[in-house]
Amino acid sequence: MIKFLDLHKINKPFETDFQLKFQQFLDKGWYILGNEVQQFEADFASFCNSKYCVGVGNGLDALVLIFKAYIELGYLQKGDEVIVPANTYIASILAVLQADLIPVLVEPKLETYNINPDLIEAKITSNTKAILPVHLYGQICEMDIIIEIALKHNLLIVEDAAQAHGASYSFQSQSQFTDKNLSTNELSVRADSRTQAFSFYPGKNLGCLGDGGAVVTNDLQLAETIKKLRNYGSEKKYYNELQGVNSRLDELQAAFLNIKLPFLIKENNTRRNIAKRFLNEINNPKIVLPFWDGTHNHVFHLFVIRTENRDELKSYLSSKGIETMIHYPIPPHKQRAMKDWNHLSFPITEKIHNEVLSLPLNGVLTDDEVSKIIKVLNGWTS
Ligand SMILES: *Cc1c(COP(=O)(O)O)cnc(C)c1O
Q1: Which UniProt keywords apply (predicted)?
Q2: Who is most buried in 28, 120, 158, 302, counting CB within 10 A?
Q3: 288 CA distance to ligand 1 middle (Å)
């Protein structure tokens, strides 16, 4: 049986180090916001080529706190509209709602599954203040176009990078997005102040042994505000400057992440190499493979194929001992939680949700397992 994701196997190589760290943690007796969180924040900021990282409770909170901080700083107001992809994990949309902002859905491109930049401008109104690109499955959105739109309409960009640790986008021209015509109020759309939300949920490319998240940014004001907000709005104990929340990256989870972070590049390379094999060797005409032309650094959080007979393929693979998953079976606008949206129609999003299937892909999959998956897929005739 090839499991979709064997978390025990993924974390096994780190067990001795985890145990050692846990003993040190016990000996020290410091449980909240200590050296481990501090070290992780420094190292993860540098891993992301960014200036600041603030560890928070989870990926959802990372997004919510970015929006709340922009509200505190006066860049956003309650009721402002945020452009979000219709095709995403519901957390992206819930984050906008939890910050009292209004999500405006935009269809994806069928090829990339990511937001279609060509459809964004039609959804921009005088109330639009931000774009939330979600780098789904580990592939960065078309950021050059998105940044251009944001600059033109004076919008913030908040990236949901919960599936994209280590992914990057090769800009055609570095100088294209410098701050030539921008006042400091518009600082945040600059390419060099990229603000990203990460999740370290166990199944992500960098996962801890529980919940965890982080905000990464070059915007000092934003980082400082989120640092307060995550900790009851306080910098100095019992002095509360803002109405904050309790959403701190757990010290023990940070300790585990410090052990795993140095291996993230290797994990991503392994994933990319398996993805290359899938892309080169799966040749069943009934199966649509994910688009990747190699230009940008895709980290293949998920390898998502598409077929009209998705449910049939899923049970066929299961009968051959290959476990798969669906990311995701129901689009956000059709979820019961989003009753007001249920009547809306986003045909490309709906088609994707009806046809996608995620193959096993992670750092502990063996060559033989990869070969078996390819062989079984190529042998499928529906
Ligand atoms: C996992 C995920 C989140 C939320 O992260 P949590 O840590 O589970 O809160 C947000 N957006 C996307 C796209 C995700 O995949």
Answers
A1: Pyridoxal phosphate
A2: 158
A3: 25
What's the average model confidence in pLDDT over 50-64?
Answer: 97
21 is catalytic: no
- The residue range of the domain holding 88 is 7-106+114-261
CATH of the domain at 49: 3.40.640.10
Alpha carbon of 243 to ligand 1 centroid (Å)? 24
Catalytic residue among 68, 109, 129, 204: 204
pLDDT confidence of residue 181: 46
Residue 188 confidence (pLDDT): 45
Instruction: Find out whether 201 and 211 touch, Cβ atoms under 8 Å.
Output: yes
**Which two tokens mark 253?**
């989870």
Specify the number of domains making up the chain.
Answer: 2
Asked whether residue 120 falls in the same domain as residue 220, the answer is yes
Q: Is the four-CA dihedral 35, 41, 44, 46 of positive or negative sign?
A: negative
pLDDT tens string 86-117: 999 999 999 999 999 999 999 999 999 999 99
* Residue where a domain stops, chosen among 261, 296, 321: 261
Per-residue confidence at 190, pLDDT binned at 50, 70, 90? low
Q: Which of 64, 92, 137, 205 to mutate to test the pocket of ligand 1 (most atoms within 8 A of CB)?
A: 92
Ligand 1 centroid, distance to 378 Cα (angstroms): 32
Is 28 a member of any domain? yes
User: Cα separations (Å) of 91 from 88, 123, 198, 229, 369?
Assistant: 8, 21, 12, 19, 32
Ligand 1: which of 158, 201, 204, 358 to mutate, judged by most atoms within 8 Å of the beta carbon?
201
pLDDT given for residue 171 in this prediction: 78
- Give the pTM: 0.95
Place of tokens 């931000």: 130
Tens digits of residue pLDDT in 230-240: 999 999 999 99
